[in-house]
């Protein structure tokens, strides 16, 4: 079965503009064209587009993706090179995950800190070191702002 560029845009969530751009950038040499010049995508092309999207979403530059596509078009002679590309990208994603975990830990602390500050009525009453995971939040009761009680 073949798909038009509009159908592929619907299936992948990529815009027709993006698909045409990818084609111009040499990322889709595998897509055949009808005699009229219209792109005809296959299920295999959709799988490859999914891989391109994955690589892009994990931070790979379009020039690097183009290089990978060129290698893939050469076939089995480039298997080891492509394996190494995937290993490098795999490590890059692991590094991104580790960085995201560090960011999340800091945000978790800040949520706890500001929750305590809201409870105390002031940031001045709250202490704790956000650089240390699991660091307790301490509220100095002498600095707590007394909330007015409704009469």
UniProtKB/TrEMBL annotation:
PROSITE patterns, sorted: HTH_MERR_1, HTH_MERR_2
Matching Pfam families: MerR_1
InterPro entries xrefs: DNA-bd_dom_put_sf, MerR-type_HTH_dom, MerR_fam
Chain ranges of the HTH merR-type domain: 2-71
SMART domains given in the database record: HTH_MERR
Listed CDD domains: HTH_YyaN
Any one GO molecular function term: DNA binding
Record's keyword terms, sorted: DNA-binding
Protein name stated in the entry: MerR family transcriptional regulator
Organism the protein comes from: Secundilactobacillus silagei JCM 19001
Lineage per the UniProt record: Bacteria, Bacillati, Bacillota, Bacilli, Lactobacillales
Gene from which this protein is expressed: merR_3
């Amino acid at each position: 079965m073949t798909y038009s560029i509009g159908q592929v845009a619907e299936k992948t969530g990529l815009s027709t503009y993006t698909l045409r751009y990818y084609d111009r950038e040499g990322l889709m040499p595998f897509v055949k064209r009808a005699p009229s010049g219209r792109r005809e995508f296959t299920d295999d092309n959709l799988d490859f587009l999914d891989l391109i999207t994955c690589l892009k979403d994990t931070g790979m530059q379009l020039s690097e993706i183009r290089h990978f596509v060129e290698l893939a078009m050469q076939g089995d002679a480039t298997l080891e090179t492509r394996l190494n590309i995937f290993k490098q990208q795999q490590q890059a994603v692991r590094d991104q995950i580790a960085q995201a975990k560090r960011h999340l830990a800091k945000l978790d602390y800040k949520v706890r800190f500001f929750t305590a500050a809201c409870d105390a009525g002031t940031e001045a009453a709250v202490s704790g070191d956000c650089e240390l995971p699991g660091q307790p939040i301490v509220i100095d009761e002498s600095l707590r702002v007394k909330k007015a009680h409704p009469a």
